[in-house]
Amino acid sequence: MSEIYFDHAATTPIRPEVFDAMLPFLKEGYGNPSSIYEIARTSKKALERARDQVATALGAQPGEIFFTGSGTEADNWAIRGVAELLKPKGNHIITTAIEHHAVLHTCEYLAKNGYEITYLPVDDQGIISLEDLEKAIRPETILITVMAANNEIGTLQPIEEIGRIAKERKILFHTDAVQAVGHIPINVSKMGIDLLSLSAHKLYGPKGVGVLYCKKGVALKSFIHGGGQERGRRAGTENVAGIVALGTAIELAVSELEEEAARLSVLRNKVIDGILEQIPHTRLNGHKTLRLPNNANVSFSFIEGESLLLLLDMKGIFASSGSACTSGSLDPSHVLLAIGLPHETAHGSLRITLGRSSTDEQIEYFLKELPAIVTRLRDMSPLYEDFLKRRA
Amino acid sequence: MLYSDKVMDHFMNPRNVGEIDDPSGVGTVGNVKCGDIMKVYLKIEDNSGVVEDAKFKTFGCGAAVATSSMATEMIKGKTIQEALEITNKTVMEALDGLPPIKVHCSCLAEEALHAALWDYATKRGIEITGLKPPVSDIGEHENVMAY
Ligand SMILES: Cc1ncc(COP(=O)(O)O)c(C=O)c1O
Description:
By secondary structure, chain A is an alpha/beta fold.
């Protein structure tokens, strides 16, 4: 079997239609959208068409869409932008314990600069409690930032309800929807979202392009200073090809969403059920149904994730893990610890994220190869040895 | 992150995995918090003080498995005094190096060998010059949860 890519939450390949759409802007369509001659006007038009496509996909107005250099930049801008804008009103921000580092580290930065951050805990499935959210709100609260879908365990948050609470209490609501857009339905007006971050490379677009949706009337200041691009709110000559690609990618993703989500959730359940049924001492991480259609995250007791990934790699299967060794630190994933996993179980996690290339055959092959790999690692694990001795 | 071919070889085909019945010394080091636990079994011939056999069990990443494999290979056939010359540096060199964030795995291999030798010395009531008691922090894995 050729390579099996099960890491679509990390990034996705550029799909052919997207590649075709962006290619002319890497070749003859190189004009700077800020110039006035013909090739520049072509670029400008393409840019505005992409803005329309993104706006339509989100249920927003084109004037509310700002292109950025990444999802990370959109998160930074949203949070630091609101912090600066509403400083006279307050210094309190509410977020969750399971956000992406783009949000968490931005909040930590603000915490060092006079802001107060509440990190809402999550339950053992990875979902926040609306009651906790309401209780956390203070007169000084200026922003609620809660991710729509978690990148590790796929858990979906009750975005619409959070939006309603934020509106009632007159607090701005930002959501990091990098993993959600194009995968689950998102509509900013229906969901009461004031600010939203997304990223092209998670929906079959290129890396290095993102969007901040900023609701009309939220007068976020510029974060990147320079020229007058993006209506003076985000300087820097636009990544025209990347933006065109994002426009095409998001349009396609949203038009195919329902069908693809249905297809992937069947495959996802096959992965989850296949693992849990075949291999003892395993558990599902995240919510059984309130999760991204393409995300399966499972922990294997007694073994460590990186070893598992290396052995899968040898079989041509590319996946990811929340183990410390794969995070580049000594601690396993903060998300897995936040849902209450003990360290050793967090180290033994495996994330499978499916996508357009995923097939039934791939999953059958994976499920056929996995048990022997797990057994092999357990046979060399002192933790498993202890467990067997204690049980005997 | 890139592992050397040697590391990958010792990870894919680890030498000396297993247990020794009635071992002369056993050492367990590491902790579940950082995700690496190594357990080393040694069989030592009392008269000559030669390490006749070494086995290991390791919970950990590719580097942890590879360093366990290499360290047990290196100690076999050595006298106790020679064994003390095996350090994280020599294990790492024998593996053609490790990525910087994995260097602690090689320290663990050295500690595991020392802990097993310490256990041997304690059981036999002998003193091994130059050997320090192991810094043990494995307490946390006593109650590993099984799902
Ligand atoms: C939830 C979430 N937020 C933010 C990001 C960052 O996006 P980007 O890679 O475009 O900076 C990612 C991607 O890794 C993500 O999964």
